[in-house]
Amino acid sequence: MDNKPSLFQIWWLAIRPRTLPAAASGVVMGSALAWHDGSFQFGTAFAALLVALLLQIGSNVANDVFDFERGADTSERQGPVRVTQAGLLTPSQVKRGMVIIFGLAAICGLYLASLRGWIVILIGAAAIISAAAYTGGPFPLGYYGLGDVFVFIFFGLAAVAGTYYVQVGAVSIAAWWMSVPVGLIITAILVVNNLRDLENDRKAGKHTLAVMFGEKATKIEYVLCVGIAYLILSVLVFSQIVPVAGLLAWLSLPIAVKTLRTVLTQKGRSLNAALAGTGQVALVYSVLFWVGLVIS
Predict the structure, then answer these.
(1) What is the pLDDT of residue 232?
(2) Does domain 7-295 have CATH number 1.10.600?
(3) Domains of the chain: which residue ranges?
(4) Contact 79, 16 (CB under 8 A)
């Protein structure tokens, strides 16, 4: 019996759907704040969501092929199956898919640019280049300890403030500040990924922050990312930058605590659950924040 997965199943593995809730969280947060300010636009928000999801998928696919070509993905890999390393797709097939995915993201971005102008094109182009350059190109960001910074910028600041901007036409103080907790939680996903792959990355010469500073420091980084994401919300409420009802996001804390225990006590493949869990925290945090604004 042939147990080889279908083409659809192979590409489903390649896009890594468990990472997508995190990509959506910035759009949810930006839309929540736009709704609170009376400027929510469903069509614009949906286009921003498509861009965010396609950028995440494109980044996943790019990492799949470029990590393989750089020797970072081997049979010792602890994470989910990578289709290039597993021989399910050739590098050229994966690269063609990557170009199509980023092309679709660009098309959606052009629609948003038609609403808000050239700055949207600039941000979108930078996001696509950074997503591909995380593991590809002459200076792969993830191989020089810069992945955390760029994830925070594009999946936090750009996602939340950008989503707000394309709906409202300006960026409020609240939108800027609420991009920080979202960016920190999504950065924490990368921290878990790098913690899990620490030894393989070290062998491959991939100098993530985890490789440079070690296991203990990486766990501290995770705690700080998640902890500050919750604490800063209290500060913003106290400062009257966001409504007190936004504290409903704290109801996502049990998920965060459960995931934190996994990060602090587990190693290797067991950390894959923490990856999915942190992505859930990011989305639930943003959704509950929006719910808080609605019921207030």
Answers:
(1) 96
(2) yes
(3) 7-295
(4) no
